């Protein structure tokens, strides 16, 4: 079985290499499936990670959330259950053996339907835990992920077969070690989904001041319960989450739309340029001008891995 796993893992890497020829994040004709390639290690990258499962076929990556550090390679898969700001870094990659990853974004409706059809227990929706989790990649998961990417070579089969293979992958996740985390994604009354409603509100309104009472009402939770579960899941408070979104969007405005630092700061809700510059430097390791110069000098730092 081990020899078969090595062979299947090699095929998955070959498929990603074939359909993602340049460094970056590549959408595919298969809904919710993205291929990621990097030809060398990167500096730490600040990104908002979507709910997804990630299978590394080659190389090694590290993701940090709060004090949590998750290092994974082809032996483990990563599950992310809510939109969460992370610091990601490719640790092992080179031009001859690039970092290669398959990302499948999670669809709560498909997860919920699978739970209902399969009769699997939903678990205790009152519990909450970190948004990220790692587990060993099984032979069955690796096989399904490989078959999913084979469909890229047969476009006419994608519409019929890709949903079937996606359901297989999600089913195997729902009966695996990350079952509790995945099952909470599916149900609207879970603690995770209550926090997810708060996250959605903050994402839509991050440039505006807000009170915790308003966000708690959106989540249908008390302020104290929201603060407790929000921090348990995202490793930060709602206000810290808002700050990360503000600073990441300001960075995007400066890098992609050539906004100056003062304009970008105002656009994301900062009244004080000095406070904006100070908090920007604290998060990204340098004030806006130096940080953007570094990103432009090293383009691979600018794309979300």
UniProtKB/TrEMBL annotation:
<dbReference type="GO" id="GO:0043565">
    <property type="term" value="F:sequence-specific DNA binding"/>
</dbReference>
<dbReference type="InterPro" id="IPR018060">
    <property type="entry name" value="HTH_AraC"/>
</dbReference>
<dbReference type="Pfam" id="PF06719">
    <property type="entry name" value="AraC_N"/>
</dbReference>
<dbReference type="InterPro" id="IPR009594">
    <property type="entry name" value="Tscrpt_reg_HTH_AraC_N"/>
</dbReference>
<protein>
    <submittedName>
        <fullName>AraC family transcriptional regulator</fullName>
    </submittedName>
</protein>
<dbReference type="InterPro" id="IPR009057">
    <property type="entry name" value="Homeodomain-like_sf"/>
</dbReference>
<dbReference type="GO" id="GO:0003700">
    <property type="term" value="F:DNA-binding transcription factor activity"/>
</dbReference>
<keyword id="KW-0804">Transcription</keyword>
<dbReference type="Pfam" id="PF12833">
    <property type="entry name" value="HTH_18"/>
</dbReference>
<feature type="domain" description="HTH araC/xylS-type">
    <location>
        <begin position="196"/>
        <end position="294"/>
    </location>
</feature>
<keyword id="KW-0805">Transcription regulation</keyword>
């Amino acid at each position: 079985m081990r020899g078969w796993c090595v062979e299947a893992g090699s095929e998955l890497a070959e498929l990603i290499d074939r359909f993602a020829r340049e460094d970056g994040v590549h959408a595919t004709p298969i809904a919710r499936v993205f291929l990621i390639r990097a030809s060398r290690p990167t500096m730490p990258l600040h990104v908002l990670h979507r709910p997804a499962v990630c299978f590394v076929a080659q190389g090694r990556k590290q993701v940090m959330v709060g004090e949590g550090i998750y290092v994974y390679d082809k032996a483990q898969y990563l599950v992310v259950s809510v939109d969460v700001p992370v610091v990601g870094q490719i640790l092992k990659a080179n031009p001859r053996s690039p970092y290669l990853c398959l990302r499948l974004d999670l669809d709560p409706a498909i997860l919920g339907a699978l739970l209902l059809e399969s009769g699997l227990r939903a678990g205790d929706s009152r519990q909450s835990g970190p948004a990220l989790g790692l587990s060993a990649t099984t032979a069955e998961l690796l096989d399904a992920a490989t078959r999913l990417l084979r469909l890229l070579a047969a476009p006419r089969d994608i519409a019929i077969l890709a949903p079937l293979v996606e359901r297989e992958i999600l089913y195997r996740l729902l009966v695996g070690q990350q079952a509790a985390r995945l099952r909470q994604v599916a149900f609207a009354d879970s603690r995770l989904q209550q926090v997810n409603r708060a996250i959605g509100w903050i994402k839509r309104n991050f440039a505006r001041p807000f009170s915790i009472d308003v966000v708690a009402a959106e989540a249908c939770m008390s302020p104290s319960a929201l603060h407790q579960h929000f921090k348990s899941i995202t490793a930060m408070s709602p206000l810290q989450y808002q700050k990360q979104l503000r600073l990441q969007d300001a960075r995007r405005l400066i890098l992609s739309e050539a906004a100056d630092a003062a304009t970008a700061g105002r656009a994301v809700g900062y009244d004080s340029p000095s406070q904006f510059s100070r908090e920007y430097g604290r998060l990204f390791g340098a004030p806006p001008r130096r940080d953007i110069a570094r990103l432009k000098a090293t383009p691979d730092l600018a794309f979300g891995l």
